[in-house]
Design a protein that fits this description.
Low-confidence stretches: none
Distance between the termini: 36 Å
Oligomer: single chain
Mean pLDDT: 96
Helix content: under 10%
Structural class: mainly beta
Largest sheet: 7 strands, mixed
């Protein structure tokens, strides 16, 4: 799957952003898809997963604030983020996921170039 993230930017604490991930070559509805992030000097952190059956899973740090979804007609994955905090500052990536627990096992592949999210206090 070829993926391209967009929608990042700079916001103040408490703000919201919606990230998009446009997919080509394959239908994302048939795949496990995920968002993860990486801040400078830190390990990758799993954010959210949406399975082919539509089931979703979230990392503890974003539960209740972030929502993963997809538009099958547009073949696009989304990440709606609200109540943003400075610790959410990172590069955000969408990727195909696999395995039993992609968020903790970090089992991703074919991620895009990423989109930067910066949250100021």
């Amino acid at each position: 799957v070829q993926l391209q993230e967009s929608g990042g930017g700079s916001v103040q604490s408490g703000g919201a952003l919606r990230l998009s991930c446009a997919a080509s070559r394959y239908r994302i509805s048939t795949y496990c898809m995920s968002w993860f992030r990486q801040a400078p000097g830190k390990e990758r952190e799993g954010i959210a997963v949406i399975n082919s059956d539509g089931g979703t899973t979230y990392g503890d740090s974003v539960k209740g604030r972030f929502t993963i979804s997809r538009d099958n007609a547009k073949n696009t994955l989304y990440l709606q983020m609200k109540s943003l905090k400075p610790k959410d500052t990172a590069m955000y990536y969408c990727a195909e996921c696999f395995g039993k627990d992609p968020l903790t096992e970090h089992t991703w592949r074919d991620w895009g170039p990423g989109t930067q999210v910066t949250v100021s206090s």
